[in-house]
# Entry
Amino acid sequence: MNTMQGLTTKEAEASRLKYGSNVLTQIPPESLWLKILKGFLNPLILVLLVALCFQVILFFLGQAEWFEPAGVLCAILIANGVASFSENSQENKASALKAEAEAKKTAKVIRDGLLKEIHVGDIAVGDVIFLQAGDKISADGVILEGSLKVDQAALNGETEEAVKRAISGYDTYEVKDLLNEFYAYRGTVVREGEAYMEVKAAGDRTLFGELALEVQEGTRETPLQVKLHKLAGQISTFGYTGAAVIVAGILLKTVLGGNVPEDFYGWIRLILDAVTIAVTIIVCAVPEGLPMLTSILLSLQSLKMAKDNVLVRKINGLETAGSLNLLYSDKTGTITEGRLSVVELATGNLHSFASLKEIPQRLANEIVNGIGLNNSATISGDAIIGGNSTDRALLSFLAESGCQLNLCKDKVLEFQAFDSNKKYSSITISQEGGAVTLIKGAPEKIIEQCSQYLDENGQCQEMTGLDELNCYLNQQSGRSMRLLAVAKTEGTSLNAPFTLLCIISIRDNVRAEAVNAIREVRNAGIQVVMVTGDRKETAEAIARDAGLLTEKTELAMTSAEMFLKTDEELKELLPDLRVVARALPADKSRLVRIAQELNLVVGMTGDGVNDSPALKKADIGFAMGSGTEVAKEAGDITILDDNFSSIEKAILYGRTMFKSIRKFLIFQLTVNVAAVLICFLGPMFGENVVMTVIQLLLVNLAMDTLAAIAYGSEPALREFMRDKPIPRTAHIISKEMFVQILLSAFYITFICLAILFVRPVRELFGTEDIIYLKSAVFATFMMAITFNGFNARTTHLNLLKGLNKNKNFLIIMLSIFLLQFVFVTFGGDVLSVKALSVHSWLICTLLAFMVIPVDLVRKMVMRKRQG
# Structure
């Protein structure tokens, strides 16, 4: 077969059968049904399943209505189903976005002797691909003809373009050596040139494919999952223990009270009554809304974050962002702009300018010719193409000032490309009837040949003050500036004395918004470490400008210096580490592992395939929107604009979500503790059933679901960034929260039991009808927990603070008040209630409202102790 003829369609099919297709293998996500089945293993769901079993037994024994086990079953299905469906929905959206992007990927191949454009998945080993500038290489292969400059940053993180050229019969290469000149790799981008490449490896057998498979492994639990699983275990233990204690208590009370059953059936009846109360206790103890809470919160926050250029690809990534202790961040494009920019121009007498618009016209015209005509890049529409990164930066600088329109290439007489020995390029143009040569290159080479310079007004001056000029050059180099000198000389000879036009400082500049974002993140107690492939001096200069290196104790290390340290030595240095220079992909994975061994919550940013293992291993991976699909797949969150300030927003949203979960837990656990106490103490005072299972399920499920939406709508407040990160192993219920839950629960328990058992309170309702009084208990209980929702929402004494930013909260709380009125007024036999009079409603409202001043007293006492 003639190699340049490529494959025929039949040969391509045979090649795919032999060597595999060019489609990357994707490990399928868990099915919806598997998620639902795993959900039943949640400790809280298991408690409800136990309660359901008892309810079914009681129903068949005639001790429960049909709707009681049906209500528990609905609670289980809703609690488990919402979480499973939400997670499945997020995965389907991510898969759809990926499939849409994959469908658009094509390549130009020689097939059946003709140049055709086909889908990358149809490429086979042996195909000949035609590559041009701008193409993303879609398989691994050897260059047959032509030459290329290739950006391999996606694989090795290096910004320097690699040269690829045609292989001859005597050339050899090592496939794993990315810098070999004959072999090109999938995922890399052609920056310059044209070539034909024969495919040698496709799909999973490419280097890109091998790394893509590596990142599809499991990760450890998120900090919130650890905390919630611990809480779920504690609640389930509390429920089981409470149920056992109440059964024993009722039996003991019966025996000690002299009411011992006379026959076997009497004992059966007594045990069934005790079990009925125990099941009620279990239902009371379990916060049914908790399993679906995080799904509701994450969905609501994800919608908000999309507007801020943050795409949550993996649902648990958001809450992890709020728990970060340590963030390893890329430099290029994240902290910096990701492209070279002209930062400053200085004349020979060190008069500096930030833009061409500031420079007097006479000097500006000379500079425009010096950097615009003596330039290998060109402007095509809105894009700047060709040339090297420095030429593109210079042309972009002219375009920003609108000066590219002044370039007249017709007057160019001769162009001499960059000479590595002379270290400059030159161009000769016709000007005012004569010839002028413009020179651009290394300052040390050009300045030594300058006898004059043009000052800020364009006037020729004698070249003096070289010491000051050299001092300026050293100072700019210390700021990691890439320096260029621009000069001119009359005529065409490069041996004649030069006149210096300006010194240009170029750098991949720090994003202005990144400086503020880094300050915010550091003030939030999060350590930021910049990881870059740049040399140490450049990295340190950028880190200082970005606000990362501010103290003498803060460290910058190179990959080589890290290699000499043991893990234990590196752990000791880690708190002071701020910069890692000349970093390799293996360094990132090691840094993540070491931080996790210290039990820190670790974040990692990245955009290349080489970053993917570290992105996957980190507790949260921030993939850049401009990065590879493999990096995005490995990451939890995609930063669409590649900006550090968007990472800061993700952290803020994560903290907001964690705050919302804590607020919800205060709200719901107050409900659960109060309900358990009421149902436990009621029988001790002589009333076996104070609130029915159906009433409790309504409170726990319907009310708490609405509350989850209300707290999920809480705004992201800047004050959250002043808090320190919560340790991974810390309890989700803090000491202050525990006190608040108990105090409010005790008050709610007291007023509810007082309605039944304290005569002065009972007489306020003007009746001895026990069903009516229980209806008042139910109404008071629901209103009290609703008023307590305002207490749980904020730690401030002003309960209305920030409420205007969460109108959903007010709407939902008003809806709960309306629902409880409907339940009590029209619930009838299903809810075991009777309609209340206006007088009774007023008394219930007043008793319930007092939970607010009770908690305000607690807040004032706590503030006094703290400060």
Remarks:
- The mean pLDDT is 84.
